[in-house]
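Backbone-to-sequence.
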């Protein structure tokens, strides 16, 4: 595949956690936890991640221009797959349900050619997803895209948001019933997902007063602290998220 630009490389490395900075935003090795939640309506995604003990990073919202620039660089790094490929993902059941109802991926979606990775079984309630990617599917195969891939064992293939999917439920084989979630529970469903078409989102700086963005930082901080965010902050943050991707 064509070489990525320096800006694209930085965005991709930041997304997968290959970071070497102590600066807030750029130094978060799990920025994707917060970034992906921004694609979901309301704050159910943020609540689920906080319940799993994951850190929601307010620094990601501190600079709207920087966030939009990184999102654009990351989205521009997706290129058509040259040959068909099968990949796998252990998904949160709640996120899978939202995905199935929407008929598409909702956020950036990390998959692997190495099967169902144990590292992603730290979720409460899981769904097993097999992706049958035809040639032409927009994706980022990390081993090909990055000059040096620090997490080669993950064999990651990143899929974009807003990719329409045909989802078919499958029986759960006995050996896959041994794939357990964070509470020791087996998968709730197994599916095959085939991409149909993709219309990448176009992030933009929300034309909103600053309090809407600050409300988002407040919500994330409250959830990190185990506090219930105010209804007003949740409402403003939800409006800001919607404006970030849909104007």
């Amino acid at each position: 595949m064509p070489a990525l630009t320096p800006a694209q490389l930085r965005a991709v490395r930041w997304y997968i956690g290959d970071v070497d900075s102590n600066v807030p935003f750029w130094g978060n090795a799990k920025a994707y936890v917060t970034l992906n939640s921004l694609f979901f309506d309301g704050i159910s995604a943020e609540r689920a991640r906080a319940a799993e003990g994951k850190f929601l990073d307010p620094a990601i919202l501190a600079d709207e221009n920087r966030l939009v620039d990184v999102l654009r660089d990351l989205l521009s790094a997706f290129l058509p797959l040259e040959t068909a490929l099968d990949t796998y993902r252990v998904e949160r059941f709640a996120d899978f349900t939202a995905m199935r109802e929407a008929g598409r991926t909702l956020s950036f979606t990390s998959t692997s050619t190495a099967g169902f990775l144990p590292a992603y079984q730290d979720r409460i309630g899981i769904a097993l997803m097999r992706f049958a990617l035809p040639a032409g599917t927009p994706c980022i195969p990390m081993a090909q895209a990055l000059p040096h891939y620090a997490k080669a064992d993950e064999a990651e293939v990143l899929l974009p948001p807003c990719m329409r999917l045909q989802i078919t439920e499958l029986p759960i084989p006995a050996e896959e019933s041994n794939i357990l979630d964070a509470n020791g529970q087996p998968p709730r469903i197994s599916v095959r997902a085939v991409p149909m078409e993709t219309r990448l989102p176009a992030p933009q700086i929300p034309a909103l007063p600053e309090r809407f963005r600050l409300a988002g930082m407040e919500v994330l901080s409250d959830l990190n602290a185990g506090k219930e965010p105010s209804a007003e902050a949740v409402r403003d943050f939800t409006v800001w998220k919607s404006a970030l991707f849909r104007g």
